[in-house]
Amino acid sequence: MQQLFAADDKFPSVVAALEARGWRRLPFVGCPKFDLKWTNYSKISWWRVTPQQIVSHLQNSITLSQKDQLLRLLYARGNEEQIQVDRCFPRTFDLSQPQERRLLKFWFHYSQAVAVLLETLRNGVKVDAEQVEAAIKLVKTAISNHTTAEERREIEGVLSELERRDPQFHVVGNVWICKPSNLSQGRGIVLCSSFEEIEKITSSSGEQDDQGTETTSSQIKWIVQKYIERPLLLQNDRKFDIRQWVLITELEPKPTVFWFYKSYLRFCSRRYELTRLQDRFTHLSNFSPMWSSDQFRDTLRQKHGRDVWEETILPQMHNTARLTLDAALPKLKAVGRGFEWLGFDFLVDEHHHSLLNWYPRLQPTC
User: Fold this and answer.
1) Residue 269 sits in the same domain as residue 285
2) Helical axes 79-88 vs 67-75, angle rounded to 10°
3) Least C-beta-crowded within 10 Å: which of 102, 198, 221, 296?
4) pLDDT in the model for residue 11
5) Cα–Cα dist 319/283, whole Å
6) pLDDT score, position 69
7) In 193-279, which ranges are continuous DSSP H helix?
8) Could you list the residue range(s) of the whole structural domain that residue 195 is in?
């Protein structure tokens, strides 16, 4: 008997692959009699799925793509696990929680103060009294408009201690990224360089969520995350991200997860310049694959004389995916023969430290 599948038009590769194998496509995604359904999470009627039907999601997997929900799961763990989380994710705050807004204010000024000290050491720049005061309060040191040799040694000592204690020591500066938790594919993203600007942006509204529902300022759940100001740049100083596919096929008796052996890079359209904060083409990567992970690996090997990809970047990506799934898997439920196909997007900074750019997406990239 010919097998039947239902799929949205936005998954042409899936449709083509199934039809090439002799499957017959049903005219409507909502048809209840199918062998396989490949569609958005919101279009699956879980109560109608039979034990033998295959669906392209696990129940409650929306937790993985809703940033506020996953954030709570990640930081609900013990102190040791939270330290691991800080090594994998830029500092992130859910502004629907009043205490998170207060924490954001502290970490904003902390990041700003550390950046002042780092810039002082790198370039010997002058800083004004207000910056000096913030640096004194937040990193327990003092600098003046002209850094003497003694003051320089003091700054170096404080920064060395911070680097040892803070997993995100190098992720500092003034720029933060604001993103509505319920929007995807870059919609609603704004880069801010002042706390007042963050306050203003996160009090506004005017977008539709991923279900097409108009949201008001009271309904929007804003996530604010530290922006990676010094990313690794390639292709004429362009920023990029790495898309890695992960497949969850079983939850019981033991979770079964597959890591696709190849990933790919997607570059921004324009040269990276931090001064152009509102230029989306500078900061948001293209949705089309441009480099394979093999090409990236070869480029790094030629530049550094060692396998940076295999020795440094890839293990960090593995660890980040494992932490994310460990936090979310207990919330997932297999209905029928459900599975989950996730795309993790990673950024790499100038120190070859990989960080999860955004939380796992379920959308195709090309």
Assistant:
1) yes
2) 140
3) 102
4) 93
5) 25
6) 82
7) 195-201
8) 176-224
Q: What is the CA radius of gyration of the chain?
A: 23
For residue 362, give the nearest of 128, 21, 43 by alpha carbon. Answer: 43
Run means of pLDDT, 10 residues per run, the chain, 366 residues = 93 96 94 94 94 96 83 73 78 87 85 74 57 55 44 62 65 83 72 91 62 53 90 94 95 94 94 90 82 97 97 96 91 95 94 83 55
- In this structure, the number of other CB atoms found within 10 A of the CB of residue 27 comes to 7
| Same domain, residue pair 234 and 335 | yes
Output DSSP code: residue 264.
E
* Other beta carbons within 10 Å of 362: 18
**Residues 6 or more apart whose Cβ sits within 8 Å of residue 115:** 172, 173, 174
Q: Where are the beta strands (DSSP E) in the chain?
A: 4-7, 24-25, 36-38, 54-55, 92-94, 176-180, 190-192, 222-226, 240-250, 256-259, 264-267, 291-292, 340-348, 354-361
Q: Judging by DSSP bridges, how do beta strands 4-7 and 24-25 pair with one another?
A: parallel
CA distances 288 to 115, 226, 231, Å, are 34, 25, 20
- Would you say 247 and 257 are in contact if contact means Cβ atoms under 8 Å apart? yes
| Sheet strand arrangement including 54-55 | 24-25, 4-7, 36-38, 54-55
- Per-residue pLDDT at 210: 46
The total of structural domains in the chain comes to: 4
Q: Would you tell me how many other CB atoms lie within 10 Å of the CB of residue 57?
A: 25
Reading the block at residue 93, the tokens are 């705050």
CATH number, domain with residue 314: 3.30.470.20
DSSP state of 309: I
